[in-house]
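FAQ: What does the model actually see?

It sees only this:
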Amino acid sequence: MKINFTLLFALSAFTLSLSQTDIKKTEKRSAMEAPIKYESTNVEIDIRAVECIWESDFSNAGDWDTDHDPADCALDWQIGQNLECAGSYPITAIESANGYYAMLDSDAYGGEEGGTEVEDSWLTMSSPVDCSGLDNVIVEFDTWYRSYNSERCFLVVSTDGTFPTDLSPTTEADPANGIYEIFPDVSNDVGADLGDNPSTRRINISESAGGQPQVWIRFNWTGTWGYAWFIDRVCVAEQPADDIELSYGLVSHNGTGEEYGRVPLNQLGDGAYTGGGAFNFGVNDANDVSLTMDVSNSAGENVTSQTNYTMYGYELDAVAGGLVLNMDTPIYGPVATNTNVYFEDMTPMSGVSEDIYTATFTLSSSGDTEAGDNFGNNTATRDFELTNGLYSTDGIGVHSDPTITRMGTGSFTDATDGFMMMSYYDISQSTQLGGVWIGLDSYAYTEPLTVPGGELVVALRDTTLLSAETFDPGNVIASSDFYLITQQDIDNGYVVVPFGSNISLNPNAYFISVEMYSNGNATDIYILDDETVPQPSYLSMIYIPGDQVYTNGTATAIRMITDGAISDIISLEENNLEYNIFPNPSSGTINIELGEQGEFSVEISDIIGKSIYNNIIKTNTNIDINGLDAGVYFVTISNENKSNTTKLIVE
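And it is asked to produce this:
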């Protein structure tokens, strides 16, 4: 089995093999605001593990020169304190110890609709550093960056003060000539970020700077209407002799790279696939490299451990166009300098109970141990919950330090009514689906954009039907009734939408979708999006009416309520009216059959909330709709105690 290096697991750039079939994935820029932290946390800035021969924390702007290629753009880097993105789609600023840093705000330069220029802007050391006594040289810096779809971020080295001034998103890395790409694992992966804010990156520039008496470094942005890039705490230092670093830790109960925030015990099986990525940044080959992992419960008690991980390597693949992870054959022996490896194995978890757990990963080598100077980048953690039936891609309420955003009917042009958000679920053991829990933005935001009066409908979908070219919003396995968002829902921060009856799910892959109607943005609905853990791009999807399906690559707060958790559903069925409307779609008349006796109000409204028809009925009724234009309408039947809404298609 070969795994794509840039996405870490079995993901290709455009297609993904799912348990039902392939999905063609295209990606679209999300019009979300800057991510927020669900809880206030203290930002910890790592202490330097290396001794810098030159460093800058940007408190002195004179350390740097800013400029751009005037033939391409007029965009410059900014240096200052507490800078924030000023565009239409800002990302959060870098976390900084003193508040000083550099920022490249491509989004603000591109404007609300997006620019078309190929931006080429740079941040250059104003004076050189002497590296004549160093054979092995690195640049270490803190950074924060979110990718869009047409950009590259370079570190460029010069030994004579001259630099190339024509870099573009198609430029290839060329270390022999001092051109290093900083984010080959992130750039052009739409919406991807670095995971940690700030993230510390190291670039080995020995090939171009080793032994040189004068060395200048430059951070060079080139792209077209991206998000933003932040730089802080730049350090030029001698490369450590021994430094093996842990890039990430992973807990995936199904072994496909999906890291669910909550997993029902009946979907866990005997355990979970755990592992992590490692990189040897030291000059020396790393001997006796090993990964260990301990899982503790909410009381801090150890419940399981893993000490014998299998190590795998990467190889060039002409078809994939880069490095891919080869998990067909384990590798052994020392890890060469500047080499990535991957560890993975099944970790038994039999006998565990419902609880929140933390997996703590620790990487070491014979030259980089806990007592060493470079051990600060050798650990990682993952939080997850095992439940009686609640199944969620998101980990809001589980992750100790989540990063979340929101998305909804006001996020995209033409997405006010019929906009969908979807979460992907892998069912390994047969189960019952009773309903869906949906996290509204009011769950985390003090100033929610969700207001009462919007309507939504939940559906279970087959993954085979989510082609970008042929997606049919009406083709579902099962669907709920329409649900009207109330002020009480907003105060609660969530809604629970039941299906009419429990649905049997066989082992397979499914999407849960939430289709939203906002009356033309008069009653917007926003759902939380968890960005804490990097996820496969297909784990969440969106649909923009009149456009197509797009991957979103986050963990949307749309949760399955299965098996043991079904009894905990806040049942809405007792407040639902029993009735039937047919034919639907219709082009002449509709029939309303009541399932109970009484006096009921019937209202038909259009997609923007304008009332088209009002009447009181006591028996089964026929309504003439010949005068209505073709389109989507809503039929609401209610009395003092009950209300229910159905979408009506007029042809």
